[in-house]
Amino acid sequence: MLMDDIDRKLLALLREDARRPAASLAKTLKVSRATVQNRIARMLARGAIQGFTVRTRPELEEGRVRAVMCIAVEGERSAKVVKALRGFAEIEAIHTTNGRWDLVAELNTETLPAFSHALDQIRLIEGIASTETSILLATVKA
């Protein structure tokens, strides 16, 4: 799945505004509208673009509890742990990493009691050796 500079620039522009018209993207990239549309279609087909989403202003989500949980996995149980974590609606993303922690999960809950319950349930997953969780206080760049 090789990408060139135009693909990378196109992805950066789409990350800023995925609803930006193809003609505007083409003008910025100095390519044709058809080129932009073909590249987006190709990246979707290859899985480089997995979907589109909506970002909301942080103040609209006021009162929600957002956090990152670092997870150490026992032995070779990462696949089973990831499968179990995918079942939690509170988990928005799961990342593999290196160093002390094997996984990082992004959590988002409605309330602090819901957050506490999610943490308790996640920690019961077989194969999780230890966790460390930090609540996100503010977002300075999204």
Describe this structure in words.
The protein is of the alpha+beta class. The chain folds into two domains: 5-46, Orthogonal Bundle (Arc Repressor Mutant, subunit A); 58-135, Lrp/AsnC effector binding domain/regulation of amino acid metabolism (RAM) domain (Alpha-Beta Plaits, 2-Layer Sandwich), CATH 3.30.70. 38% of the residues lie in helices and 21% in strands. The protein is built from five helices and four strands; from the N terminus they run αααβαββαβ. It has helices at residues 5-16, 22-29, 33-46, 78-85, 112-123, and strands at residues 65-73, 91-96, 103-109, 128-135. It has a four-stranded antiparallel β-sheet, covered by helices on one side. A hairpin with a 6-residue loop joins strand 2 and strand 3. Helix 2 crosses helix 3 (33-46). The longest helix has 14 residues, at 33-46. It is elongated.
Shape: elongated
Helix content range: 25-40%
Q: How many helices does DSSP assign?
A: 5
Distance N to C terminus: 26 Å
Features:
four-stranded antiparallel beta sheet, Arc Repressor Mutant, subunit A, elongated, 142 residues, single chain, 5 helices, alpha+beta, 2 domains, 38% helix, Alpha-Beta Plaits
Put the structure in a nutshell:
The protein is of the alpha+beta class. It has a 4-stranded antiparallel sheet with strand order 2-3-1-4, covered by helices on one side.
SSE blueprint:
Blueprint: H1 5-16, H2 22-29, H3 33-46, E1 65-73, H4 78-85, E2 91-96, E3 103-109, H5 112-123, E4 128-135
Antiparallel strand pairs: 1-3, 1-4, 2-3
Helix pairs in contact: 2-3
